[in-house]
Amino acid sequence: MSNDRIPRNRENDYTREAAAQRRDFVSQRTGASLEHVGQYSFDPAGLPGNIENFSGIVQMPLGFAGPLRVNGEHAQGDFYVPMATTEGTLVASYSRGMRLTRDAGGITTTVVDDAMQRSPVFAFEDARGARDFGKWITDNFAGIKAAAETTTRSGKLRNIEQYHASRMLYLRFNLTTGDAAGQNMCGKATFAACQWIQANYDRPIARFFLSGNMDTDKKHSQLNTLHSRGKRVVAEITLGRDLLQQQMRTTPEAMYAARMTSQLGGLMAGAVHNGVHPANGIASVFIATGQDEANVAESHASLVHAEITQEGDYYYSVTLPSLIVATYGGGTGLATQRECLEVIACYGAGKARKLAEIIAATVLCGEVSLGAAVVSEEWVSSHDELGRNRP
């Protein structure tokens, strides 16, 4: 056996002793000190299913922004939002936006869609074979649904989209997944459904793959922007003219002009969405609450809309079409992440849509705050004051 292989304990690999052995191994071979990585408070026995070769903890600074006032269907009231980040000014900026929106009466949030996808692809001798197969899929949806749902208690197959190309048919299975993010649940259910399809379809199938990449898992895509992946959430608010002038030192006209200019610049640059920096808020809350951080790739895409109302106030909305969150499973049960979820009363069953509404409202606050800072020419000075930690 090579002495360069990372140590593992086949009987019980999730212990403090096994982690220390791996840290010693890496330190000896790299010369790096892992003193701080080796300091943590929770029991490694709870980590199977979350990580392999567990060796320690990478700690992130945690701050709370707020209170954030949400007038949602699932999230209602004031929340102190946990944000894990190493970027100075971030928590302060989101807190500033939260103060503004709270004084305006709070942010209205609405979940308008909720489904997770897996997209198998079937290939046939020719395009007509793929077309006929598509008709069969439509006629046999009940059997496919029953097969998919044998693998899960909470997942439900809602519908199957069809996309034809060449002699292939790409299917996009849409499942509701309860309070789990649901990628693995969706993959397992779709695989069972595809096994049922192959056993019951009476014509030759040339080729089958469980994923044809039209679910665009952990990648941005226009299809997910249009059809959603995870939760599709809208956050909206009307900000009074006087409030904008008093707290943000700007006007609805200036904010709107900047928004139109920003959208044109983003169009010229080929940006995939018209938000300002939604990834900042989403990533920091994701890390704090145990979400799959790679899902920021889909979740950050935002559709921002603004208007000056007839009364001269500023209407502002953020739509997150593919926000993937969980309050159960994955990293949500880890000790520190669970504590952060409990701060906003979002741990456990029945809380995923509530978390989605809180995150969407948080994103809106960050968009308004940064947008106003740019317009009032306070962006650079705020970073100089709060964002520098070295000479």
From TrEMBL:
GO MF term list: hydroxymethylglutaryl-CoA reductase (NADPH) activity
Enzyme Commission code(s) on record: 1.1.1.34
Protein name: hydroxymethylglutaryl-CoA reductase (NADPH)
Key words of the record: NADP, Oxidoreductase
A biological process from GO: coenzyme A metabolic process
UniProt keyword NADP present: yes
Keyword 4Fe-4S applies: no
Enzyme class per UniProt: oxidoreductase
Domain of life according to the entry: Bacteria
Family note: Belongs to the HMG-CoA reductase family.
